[in-house]
Every structure is written in structure tokens, then in C-alpha cells.
Amino acid sequence: IDPSVAPVLEVSGLSLKGKYSNISYAVFCLHKKTIVGTSGSGREELSRAIFGAEKFDSGSIALNGTKVRGWRIPKAVSKGVGYVPSERKVEGMVGGYSAAENIVLTHPGKAAIGPIVLPWKRNKIAQEWFTTLDVRPNDITLELDRFSGGNQQKVVMAKWLNDPNLRVLVLDHPLRGLDPGAAETVNEQIKKACDNGAAVILLADTLEEALEMGDEILVMRDGAVTGHYDMNVDNPSTLDLLERMV
Question: Fewer beta carbons within 10 angstroms: which end of the chain, N or C?
Fold first, then answer.
């Protein structure tokens, strides 16, 4: 990695008592790297801290080489950071809103003139995403809580992919509960986000998923980093990962 290239995201010495400690790593979107945390201990809380949803005790987060201050969700969103939570129905969507309303919820700019969202623009954007992601039923006006889990997840993904300035996408178990067809569609969009220059931090459901999707793999145990693999050089097995997790 060229030392003159600032990472799009860098965490240094990040710690939260009882959850994770002294976590440091960098994500270079110019190299289209997908970072995959493979263990369950501390990684969820760490991902929420990166999105500004939870505070941390010590350490720092930097975007494009500049340390961030007062890091909270609104600032993270404004800086091009997206987050798909594991509990999508609780944190990732507004069930009483239509699918179209959910898609433009966090980044309404393309569907608005000034502060006013134009329904026809919103619906056009939503329909494009429905076609791209094969959301079913093909009804953007339907309330999102009336869709199946897999189709809800596609809409939640679209909400962040709709950001024209997306730089970092944190995905907490994005394939959980999805059928194989929906999982394949979501994985295609994850790879496309990388190809478009976004850095993706993926908390995989399984070790096999981590190995399949990751360009890099970060292994954690009890809130500490125990292994780091560059898949361009290394060839770890599921057993190699497991040994560093337990």
C-alpha cells in the first residue's frame, strides 16, 4: 500500500471497556478492500462505534486522514458512512413508511428541491432500485413492514447505496435470514459498492462467507484482534480462522 495514500477510514487504539480493546486497522477504498471481522466478540459494538451509534472510551477514528470529533450518526451519514444493522426491523427501517420513503430517508437530496422531497423523483429513484435489486412485490408504495425479510433487507441496502458520496459501508450480518437468491443479489451489490470506490466492513455470518467475500480478514477474540489476513497473499482455511477465534 502506498504510504502517501490516506486510508478512507482508520481506527487507532479504539477501546470500550468490557467489549473491545486497542483496535487499530485502516481501510483503503482506493484498493477496494473488504474488511471482514469473523468473530462475534466485540465486533458488533465496534461497528456501531464506527457509525457513531455508540461511544467508545479511548482511541480515535479518522476519515481520509483527518481525525473526527464529536462522532455521532448525523455526522457519519454526512461524511458518507452507511450502516446496515443486524436488527433491520428495529434499527434499519421505518415499517410504517413505504418502501420508496425508506429508500430516500437518509439521503433525500436526489429526490428533492431544497428541503422539499418531490414524490415523483422519490418514486423514480425507488423504482430504479426495485428493478436493480429485484425487490418483490414490485410495489414501491407498499409499507416496508409488509415485505418479506429478504426484500426488506434489499430496501435497507438501497437506502445506503443511494448515497452518491458513499465512502464506507458497515454491514452487520447482511445475509442473515435471506434465501440463497436474495443473498446472491445482496452480495452482488456489496461487490459493486466496492467497485464504485466504497470501503466495505463486513461482519459475516459464517467463516465461509468471510473467506468468499473478503479481500482482507480481521479476526477477533474477546474484543481483541488476533489475526489479520490479506487474501491477495494469504490463504487461510476456516480452521485457521477458528483457531484464532477460540
Answer: C
